[in-house]
Amino acid sequence: MKLVIDDTRCKGCNLCVMVCPYHIFQEGRTSNRRGIFVPELDRPERCTNCRLQPLYQRRLCGVCQMICPDQAISWLHEAPFEPHKVVIEY
Amino acid sequence: MSVEDWYRVDRLPHIFCAGCGNGTIINCTLEAVESLGWKIDETIFVSGIGCSSRAPGYISTDSLHTTHGRALPFATGVKMAKPNFNVVVFTGDGDLSAIGGNHFIHACRRNIDITVICMNNQIYGMTGGQGSPCTPKGALSTTTPYGMDENPFDLCELATAAGANYVARWTSYHVKELNQAITFGLQKPGLSFIEVLVQCPTNYGRRNKLRDVQSMISAMKDHALLKEKRDRLLAEGKPIPDGMFVVGTLTDRNRPALGVKQ
To answer: Which residues does the UniProt record annotate as the domain 4Fe-4S ferredoxin-type (chain A) (predicted)?
Structure first.
């Protein structure tokens, strides 16, 4: 699975930056065409749902998607799925 | 079906301000509705007037955007005419407790089988930040420039006293718990009332030293006191810290209800 932010919906409130347990979302530094600072993704392959959703066949964690007031965060299916080694720091 | 199918995608992005928590509550509600496997054709969302009441306009089910404070009478009518339909009411604190207060207590008394989700942003957000019945004591707003000197409403206690079957309170920070509470409330026969405290950085936070979303969310997180912890503190005879509000499932009972699905 691949984590994506829809920058046509995001309003730059940075709530995802606050709630992500892995700090994947970082505050945006450049504004987009609509003048909104969309958060940047820092090594999104660390995301629990990206790594384990194909294994468990259900959504794991998902706090960023639920707290996003603008429905901008979603996961895309990647085909074929290749598990890769990820270093997790706590 | 996925949650995305419940949205009118052509209407997004919605008109809520950046950082407004109403979108979070729509997410949690639609997630709960989706997990229960309800059909789009058999679900109706009803709302009154206010920021929160814009919500059904972004949901692809049938919806009613009704007069100020009168969402509950319309929902009662829908439920009485179509008892097999699932009726959910989105409402705000000004809508529900100020102009619709009498309708609210009578809907609780009748115990109609609907779910009421109150997005309590503690202010009249859409009209420019006037003080509402839920504005906390001492808070600044455009109509209370020296601080609110009236006591706020406790909507959960009101619903419990008036006879609702299920009453819970959460904030827009507690998304998982809120999702569970809404899922439980949707399944419960009788009126289930879920109060959600939501951040309003534009009109409430700006005047109360909580200018950005992060500080509003952390203020809500720090002032939330779990019901279990409150009960433990009371049992031990310790004082409850000042300025805290109780979150959790406050009432869960099985009184006879009106209009339950056959």
So the answer is: 1-30
d(CA B179, CA B33): 10
Q: Which stretches does DSSP call E strand in chain B?
A: 43-47, 62-65, 86-92, 115-120, 166-171, 192-197, 224-226, 245-252
C-alpha B159/C-alpha A72 separation (Å) is 34
ipTM attached to this prediction:
0.87
Whether A15 contacts chain B with CB within 8 A: yes
Both tokens of B89, joined, read 């009411």
For B151-203, the pLDDT digits (tens) are: 999 999 999 999 999 999 999 999 999 999 999 999 999 999 999 999 999 99
| Inter-chain residue contact A69 with B21, CB threshold 8 Å | yes
Preceding amide of B189 cis, omega within 30: no
Fold topology of B3-224: Rossmann fold (3.40.50)
Chain centroid to Cα B223, Å, comes to: 18
pLDDT (tens digit per residue) in A73-85: 999 888 776 667 7
The answer, for A14 touching chain B at a CB cutoff of 8 Å, is yes
B16 touches B22 (CB < 8 A): yes
Q: Which of B26, B27, B173, B220 to mutate to test the interface with A (most CBs of A within 10 A)?
A: B27
The structure tokens listed for B172 are 């827009």
Q: Which two tokens stand for residue B86?
A: 């699932």
Domain architecture of chain A: domains with CATH: 2-76 (3.30.70.20)
Q: How far is CA B49 from the centre of its chain?
A: 14
Write down the domain spans for chain B.
Answer: 3-224
Q: Taking a C-beta distance cutoff of 8 angstroms, is the pair B153, B132 a contact?
A: no
Amino acid at B144: T
